[in-house]
Amino acid sequence: MYRIVEAQRYNPQVKRLTVEAPRVARRARPGQFVMVRVDERGERIPLTIADSDAASGRVTIIFQEVGCSTAMLGALEAGDAVADIVGPLGVPSHLEGLGRVCVVGGGLGCAIAYPQAKALFGMGAHVDIIAGFRSASLIFLEEEMRAVSHGLTVCTDDGSNGCKGLVTDILKAALEKTDYDAVIAIGPLVMMKFVCLTTKPYAVPTIVSMNPIMVDGTGMCGCCRVTVGGEVKFACVDGPDFDGHLVDFDEAMRRNTIYRAQEQRSLQDHICRGEERLHAQ
What we know:
Blueprint: E1 2-9, E2 14-20, H1 22-27, E3 33-37, E4 45-53, E5 58-64, H2 68-74, E6 81-82, E7 84-89, E8 100-106, H3 110-122, E9 126-133, H4 142-147, E10 151-156, H5 167-177, E11 182-186, H6 189-199, E12 206-209, E13 225-228, E14 231-234, H7 235-238, E15 241-243, H8 249-256, H9 260-280
Helix pairs in contact: 5-6, 6-8
């Protein structure tokens, strides 16, 4: 069992947990992820390591409650525990040699973009961050991202934070005046697709972090396959980072919706069972 030492809810759907996992914390690198199982009967959930501290033996995960398993994970608080944390898994991000980088995060993707930016900032790179959210009430990690960047722009779809626009609009303006060694884009697939379309005319290398359907995290199940440059890759062992200009985003988006109906039914069953237990008390 892995004890939860800190729990923080950013908004009704997004929560942050810091968990004691010394062996994972000692080896974790930016870009890697863990497979989490809430209890012995639960499914394995792939979650990016948002932060880690080898000295304290703790890792931080930030996740959105979208299905039954993440809802169960979101119900846990400090002092509770999860059954399993396996990792770190995946190939660490290749950040060496990058002197000027723009990190683009969209929604929950900011939880993955943050450790990338933090590592680059610590390596002495010039880091600009563009973070996009649907509305001001959903913004999180703003101060943390500001602390590891030379320039942070937070925008919202509805302009409720005073900066209305898409991350691609802000990125295009930045590309017009700055020569970046690379752009790192992490967020919804459609956002990453259009970030790559934005950077391509400028010939700026663009790295994306893929989070497809995943079961075991070891490359054996084959569920996390993505097409990159016409070849089949597995996000859990070949990624999760890939050259965004080579990713078949349309195929990835189709695959990510395969089990949406089942996920919704599972979540609804979980909510109904919870309500029945409350009524029984």
